[in-house]
C-alpha cells in the first residue's frame, strides 16, 4: 500500500534534490590492529623520552675528570749504534774426545774413576785381571832361563874344545920340532957313514907326518872356532827371542792397567767391576777440556747472515764469555718442524769449571748500524704491548702509535712514529693506557738511564 502523506512527499522531494555518492565498503578493522598501532606509538614516545633524558644528563653532568701523572720516568728519542745479532742455543763440546779402549782382554778388577772426574795423562782408568797373560809371562820367563842355560853351555863347550885342540896343537908342534931334530941328527950321521940312508929317509918321513898332523890340528881348531862361534851366536839369538817374548808378556801384563792417553774429564764409563773387557773394547770416554768449543744450532733462516770470524757473546748459565765463529756447517739438519745449521764457535779464552755438554746461549754479532733512533727499554713496553707510547707535549702526554724494531742491550729501535728529540714516558702505562691524553706534572718526571 502506497502512502500519500505530506511527510512522504517531502521526503521524496528531498531525495530528488540531493545527489548521493555510492558507499564503498572495505574490510572491517579488527581490535588486534588497533593494539599494534597503540604499542608502536607507545614505544616511539618512550624512545623519545629516554633520548631526551640521556641528552639532559650529558648536558647537565660534569665531563670526565682528566688523569694526572705525577711520578714517572721519561726518555728522549736519540741516535745510537746498534749491533744486530743472531741468537741460538748451543752446547759446550770438546774438540778432542778420546775413546779409551782395552789393549788386552781381561776382567775388570778395579775402577779408578767415575764420570766427571778429572784425569791426567797416564792416570789409571781401571785394572783388569787375566790369568792367561800371567801364565804366558811365567812361560816366557822359563824360556828365557832355558835359552840362557843353552847359551852358557855353548860357550863352555866352545872353550873346552878350543882348549883341547890348543893342547893338541902344542903337542903336534913339539912333535914336529922333535922330528926335525932327529932328521938333522941322522943326516949328519949319514954323512959320517954311521947310519944307513934308510934311517934318514924314515926320519924325514916322520917329520913330514908330524907336520901334516900339526896342520890337521890347526885346521880342526879353526873349524871348531867357527862352529863354536856359530853355536854361541845361535844360542844368544835364542836368548834374545825368549827375552823379547818375556818383554811382550810383561807389556801385556802392564796393559791390564788401562790409562788415560790425554788430560781431560771422564764423560762416561763403558765397563763395570766384574765385567769382561774385550781387547779393543771401549772402557771410557775422556774429553780434552783444554779445547772446548760451542756447537750452536742456528735457524736456517738466519744462517745466511753468519760468517766465519764474527764475534760472539756466549752465556754459560750466568757466566759470560766471548768467542769467534770458527765454522758454519754446509748443510742444515731437521729439528722438529724447522731446520737448523750447526755453527762452531771458538772461545777467546777457555772457560774454567765448565763441563762438556753444558748448555749455552750465543749471540752472534752479524752487523753494526750507526745512527739508529732508539729508546731505553722499560715497563712501558710491556703495558703497551709495544704498540704505542705517550709523547710528552708540555704538561700533557698524548698516546701515539709506534713501530719498534730490534733490541740491542738496554735499547730498542724506533722504526716509525717518533722523531729525534721527542720525549716519551717510559714508566708503566697500566693505570691510563685506555686514555688518549693525560696530564703530566713536569716536576714529577725524571729521565730514565
Write the layout of secondary structure elements.
Layout: H1 6-17, H2 31-60, E1 68-69, E2 72-76, E3 78-94, E4 97-101, E5 106-111, E6 118-119, E7 124-129, H3 131-192, H4 197-254, E8 257-259, E9 264-269, E10 276-277, E11 282-287, E12 292-299, E13 311-316, E14 319-328, E15 333-335, E16 338-347, E17 359-376, H5 379-384, E18 388-393, E19 396-401, E20 403-408, E21 411-416, E22 423-425, E23 437-440, E24 445-447
Parallel strand pairs: 1-23, 2-24
Antiparallel strand pairs: 2-22, 3-12, 3-17, 4-11, 5-7, 5-10, 6-9, 7-8, 9-11, 12-16, 13-14, 13-17, 14-16, 15-16, 17-21, 18-19, 19-23, 20-21
Helix pairs in contact: 3-4
Account of the 3D structure:
Residues 1-29 have low confidence and may be disordered. The protein has 449 residues and is of the alpha+beta class. The strands form five sheets. A six-stranded antiparallel barrel has the order 3-12-16-14-13-17. It has a four-stranded mixed beta sheet with strand order 1-23-19-18. The radius of gyration is 61 Å and the shape is rod-shaped. Helix content is 37%, strand content 33%. It has helices spanning 6-17, 31-60, 131-192, 197-254, 379-384; strands at residues 68-69, 72-76, 78-94, 97-101, 106-111, 118-119, 124-129, 257-259, 264-269, 276-277, 282-287, 292-299, 311-316, 319-328, 333-335, 338-347, 359-376, 388-393, 396-401, 403-408, 411-416, 423-425, 437-440, 445-447. It folds into four domains: 69-82 and 370-447, conserved putative lor/sdh protein from methanococcus maripaludis s2 fold (Beta Barrel), CATH 2.40.420; 100-127 and 258-284, Beta Barrel (OB fold (Dihydrolipoamide Acetyltransferase, E2P)); 131-254, Helix Hairpins; 287-368, Efflux pump adaptor protein, beta barrel domain (Elongation Factor Tu (Ef-tu), domain 3, Beta Barrel).
Amino acid at each position: 500500500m502506497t502512502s500519500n502523506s505530506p511527510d512522504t512527499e517531502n521526503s521524496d522531494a528531498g531525495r530528488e534534490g540531493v545527489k548521493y555518492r555510492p558507499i564503498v565498503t572495505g574490510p572491517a578493522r579488527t581490535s588486534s590492529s588497533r593494539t599494534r598501532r597503540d604499542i608502536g606509538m607507545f614505544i616511539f614516545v618512550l624512545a623519545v623520552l629516554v633520548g631526551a633524558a640521556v641528552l639532559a644528563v650529558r648536558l647537565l653532568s660534569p665531563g670526565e675528570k682528566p688523569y694526572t701523572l705525577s711520578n714517572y720516568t721519561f726518555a728522549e728519542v736519540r741516535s745510537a749504534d746498534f749491533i744486530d745479532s743472531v741468537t741460538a742455543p748451543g752446547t759446550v763440546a770438546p774438540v778432542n774426545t778420546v775413546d779409551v779402549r782395552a789393549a788386552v782382554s781381561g776382567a775388570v778388577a778395579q775402577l779408578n774413576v767415575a764420570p766427571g772426574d778429572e784425569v791426567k795423562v797416564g792416570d789409571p782408568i781401571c785394572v783388569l785381571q787375566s790369568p792367561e797373560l800371567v801364565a804366558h809371562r811365567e812361560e816366557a820367563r822359563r824360556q828365557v832361563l832355558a835359552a840362557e842355560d843353552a847359551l852358557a853351555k855353548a860357550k863352555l863347550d866352545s872353550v873346552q874344545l878350543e882348549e883341547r885342540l890348543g893342547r893338541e896343537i902344542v903337542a903336534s908342534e913339539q912333535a914336529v920340532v922333535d922330528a926335525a931334530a932327529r932328521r938333522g941328527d941322522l943326516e949328519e950321521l949319514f954323512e959320517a957313514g954311521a947310519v944307513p940312508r934308510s934311517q934318514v929317509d924314515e926320519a924325514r918321513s916322520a917329520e913330514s907326518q908330524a907336520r901334516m898332523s900339526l896342520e890337521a890340528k890347526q885346521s880342526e881348531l879353526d873349524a871348531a872356532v867357527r862352529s863354536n862361534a856359530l853355536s854361541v851366536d845361535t844360542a844368544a839369538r835364542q836368548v834374545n827371542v825368549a827375552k823379547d817374548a818375556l818383554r811382550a808378556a810383561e807389556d801385556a801384563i802392564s796393559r791390564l792397567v788401562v790409562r788415560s792417553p790425554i788430560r781431560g774429564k771422564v764423560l762416561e764409563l763403558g765397563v763395570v767391576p766384574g765385567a769382561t773387557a774385550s781387547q779393543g773394547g771401549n772402557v771410557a770416554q775422556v774429553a780434552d777440556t783444554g779445547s772446548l768449543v760451542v756447537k750452536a744450532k742456528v735457524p736456517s733462516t738466519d744462517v745466511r747472515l753468519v760468517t766465519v770470524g764474527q764475534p760472539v757473546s756466549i752465556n754459560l748459565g750466568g757466566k759470560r764469555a766471548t768467542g769467534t765463529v770458527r765454522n758454519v756447517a754446509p748443510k742444515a739438519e731437521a729439528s722438529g718442524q724447522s731446520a737448523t745449521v750447526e755453527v762452531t764457535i771458538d772461545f777467546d779464552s777457555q772457560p774454567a769449571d765448565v763441563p762438556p755438554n753444558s748448555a749455552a746461549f750465543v749471540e752472534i754479532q752479524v752487523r753494526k748500524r750507526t745512527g739508529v733512533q732508539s729508546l731505553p727499554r722499560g715497563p712501558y713496553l710491556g703495558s703497551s704491548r709495544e704498540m704505542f707510547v705517550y709523547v710528552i707535549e708540555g704538561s700533557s702526554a698524548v698516546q701515539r702509535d709506534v713501530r719498534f724494531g730490534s733490541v740491542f742491550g738496554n735499547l730498542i729501535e724506533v722504526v716509525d712514529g717518533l722523531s729525534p728529540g721527542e720525549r716519551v714516558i717510559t714508566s708503566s702505562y697500566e693505570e691510563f693506557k685506555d686514555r688518549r691524553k693525560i696530564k703530566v706534572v713536569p716536576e714529577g718526571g725524571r729521565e730514565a738511564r
